[in-house]
Amino acid sequence: MRHRASKILAFTLAALASGCAAPLRIPDGVYSNSAGGTLTVSGEYIDIQIPTTEPGVQTSGTHAVYRLRSDGGLRLSGSSNSSYFVFFVIDQDWRWTGSAIESRNRHDGTVVTYMPVR
């Protein structure tokens, strides 16, 4: 019986070490910036509503699935049919700081911070 318990413990530890642990998540809620843009996080989804005046890009938002990497980086997946997602959202480097979401423009380095709405 003792041998069996040690096998179960070894299997459980191996499963956790191989990446079976729960994915990292951003706390659910609304995050906003000073310019009126909002990010609404719910589970593994982010609703992105950021005004843009980029030519040829729809000005409304989009819905994306995110993955939070251990270094704080966000990987967003969305519709390739959305000009907003393809030409605006992907053009940002998204990060979770532990208390806020930041986006850095890949072209000019401008950083925008989205703080939780209380």
In short:
This protein is α+β, with helices and mostly antiparallel strands and 118 residues long. Helix content is 22%, strand content 35%.
Please characterize this protein's 3D structure.
With 118 residues, the protein is an alpha+beta fold. It has one domain (23-116): Lipocalin, CATH 2.40.128. Helix content is 22%, strand content 35%. The longest helix has 19 residues, at 2-20. The termini are far apart. The mean pLDDT is 82.
Major β-sheet annotation: 8 strands, antiparallel
Under CATH, the topology can be stated as Lipocalin
Instruction: Count all strands and give the number.
Output: 8
Instruction: Catalogue the unreliable spans.
Output: none
Q: Please estimate the helix content.
A: 10-25%
What is the topological layout?
Layout: H1 2-20, E1 29-32, E2 38-42, E3 45-49, E4 62-68, E5 74-77, H2 83-89, E6 92-96, E7 101-105, E8 111-116
Antiparallel strand pairs: 1-2, 1-8, 2-3, 3-4, 4-5, 6-7, 7-8
